[in-house]
Every structure is written in C-alpha cells, then in structure tokens.
Amino acid sequence: MAEPILPGPPEITVRAPAKINLTLRVGPARRDGFHPLATVYQAVSLYEEVTATPAEAGVFDLEVRGEGADQLPTDDRNLALRAARLLAEDAALDGQVGVSLVINKQIPVAAGLAGGSADAAAALLACAEVWGLDLAPQDLQPLAARLGSDVPFALIGGTAVGSGRGESVVPALARGRYHWALAFGRRGLSTPAVYARYDELGPTPPSPFEVSTELMNAVRSGDPELLGGQLINDLQAPAIDLMPELGTLLQAGRDLGAIGAVVSGSGPTCAFLAGSESAAVNLTVGLSSSGLCRSTRYVTGPVPGARRT
Ligand code: C5P
User: What are the tens digits of pLDDT across the range 141-195?
Assistant: First the structure.
C-alpha cells in the first residue's frame, strides 16, 4: 500500500448515532420533489462505526459488517463511499488520496433511523482525519447536506430543530435524558415510497408550519410525561397505510405502559417513550414477546453526534 499523501493517523474509527424525530411536520412537495420539514431530531444510543484506513491514491473501497450488511451495496451507491469521494473532490485531493472504509452496523437498514446518514457523517469525519484535513464537524455541514437530508444532524447529534428538507439544523435547548424502547419492523420501508403515499393521502400540514411551542417547552422541561404527549409524525399515517401492523404495534406499546409512541421518520421503527430506565427495559421485553416486531432495543437520548472512538 502506498504512503498516505498527507500526514494523518494510520486508522481512524468514528461512530455516529441513529436519530428519531420527536416531531416531524411535513409540507407539500417542493418543485425539486423534496418536502419541507419542521422537525425536532434526537440522537439515540444506537451507533454505526466507520473505520477509515488510508489507501493508495484513487482507491476507494468499502466493506460492510453487522446488522443488515447483506442488504447494502458496497459500490458507489453506498452513501459512505459517496461521502469519501465527495470530500476528496471538495478538498481538491481527487486522484491524490484513497481510503478503505469498514462499516460496523448496528442500525437496521431502511428503518427510519437514518443509519445510512450516520454512515455518511462518520465517513466524512473519519476521512477528514485520515487524510490530515484540518476540518471540524461544522466545516463538513455543507458537504453533509449535499449527501442527504439527515446527514447534517448525524454530525451534530443531541437534540436539534431541523428545517428546509431536514438539512438545516440548529441545536435545541434541551434538558434531561430520555429512555426509549425501539421496536424494529420485520421488513424495511422505502423513504421515497412513504413520502409518495403521504402525497397521495392528501396532506394537511399544520398552520403555521413550525414545530409547536408545546413540544419545545416539553423538550426544555426534561419531563418525559410532557414530551410523551407531544410526539407527532406526519409520515405515521402513510407508513401505517403501507404497513398496517404498525398501528397494532403502537397500540401494543401504549397498552404496555409507554407514555408516548410514534413511528420514527419514515418508519417502520416505532419509538416508545418510558418514564425511567426500568420502565423502558420492561417495555422492550414486553414488545419483544408480543410477536409484533422483529426485535427491540433499549436506547437513551440525546447522545452526541459523530465522534472518534
Ligand atoms: O435526502 P435523502 O436522500 O435522505 O432523501 C431520500 C428521499 O426521501 C428523497 O429522494 C425524497 O424522495 C424523500 N424526501 C422528501 N423530502 C424530504 C426528505 C426526503 O421527499 N424532506
């Protein structure tokens, strides 16, 4: 293997979190096909890990391991590889650098948890370090936005208000640590298909089109009971329309004591809020034995965005 062009550490591992949307308000499709969003993201303790090793100039390769690895391409359709190429191009290092990426996945594929976006965010940061580029996570935001609507949030993490098509993110004043049970679907849902179904169902976006004051107050309060009553997702109806068992799953979680239940992003993962760690663990166990989902996981939020391990 050739020496890296720029001085940098031999191998860098970055981990980036999954997200859920505490609120996801969706407006009618824009001229570019994307939908305007008013959302609040929360990063939760379920992570992708991306390891970058310098490779010969012009070589960009990728291996994917872990959860759902067999469902993902390892060529240029993969967002992590696209992130690496975009960074090289943007830094005018095209043809001078290369990288071998290994993704260790924990976030299910096509789950509404932004796993692919987490891969891209982690790849941007890992490549920047491995190529010795002097870039902070905020310097990578414009590139992140070009890669996908949820990638900028995966870089910052925490709790943040998102607008535009989701790519404009501003950290939110948030208090507390929330305990969630996530329930994963037996199959994935395609994000474009859920947005298309949303259009077909005839959306009624909120007016004014913004995140509600009640939700922001709940996030500031740190009180899970308040937050539980404010979870709302305009993509929930189309997701349930495409996968009716999600309605049954949400109700099962409420019956098991969840203080809030919502489809995450475009689904099919459902997020259930509990008042304490033990209540959330009990929820994951109850939902897991309900037979209504593939598996469950206890997570907490907020957690930081993409970081070196
Ligand atoms: O930005 P990203 O590549 O993650 O979006 C995937 C797809 O989801 C888009 O091609 C589009 O169909 C849909 N989408 C949308 N409006 C958004 C975000 C995503 O319609 N705000």
Answer: 999 999 999 999 999 999 999 999 999 999 999 999 999 999 999 999 999 999 9
Residue closest via CA to ligand 1's atom 9 equals 192
Task: List b or e across 42-57, with b for residues whose CB sees 16 or more CB atoms inside 10 angstroms.
Answer: bbbbbbbbbbbbbbeb
Catalytic position from the list 105, 150, 199, 234: 150
- Indicate whether residue 202 lines ligand 1 (CB < 6 A): no
Instruction: Flag whether 99 is marked binding.
Output: no
Q: Does residue 295 sit in helix, strand or coil?
A: strand
Nearest atom in ligand 1 to the alpha carbon of residue 37 is 21
- Which domains does the chain show, CATH number per domain? 12-172 (3.30.230.10), 178-301 (3.30.70.890)
CB 82 near ligand 1, within 6 Å:
no
Please say whether the beta carbons of 3 and 97 come within 8 A. no
Query: d(Cα 55, Cα 28) in Å, to the nearest integer?
Result: 44
Whether 234 is a known active-site residue: answer no
Q: How far apart are CA 130 and CA 99, in angstroms?
A: 8
Tell whether residue 111 is among the known ligand binding residues. Answer: yes
C-beta atoms surrounding 26 within 10 Å: 24
Q: pLDDT band for position 221 (50/70/90)?
A: very high
Q: Which residue's entry shows tokens 């500031």?
A: 220
Q: Say whether 19 is catalytic.
A: yes
Please compute Rg for the chain using Cα positions.
19
Rounded Cα gap, residues 166 and 171, in angstroms: 13
Nearest CA to ligand 1 atom 12: 192
Report residue 151 as tokens: 């990638």
3-state class of 122 per DSSP? Answer: helix
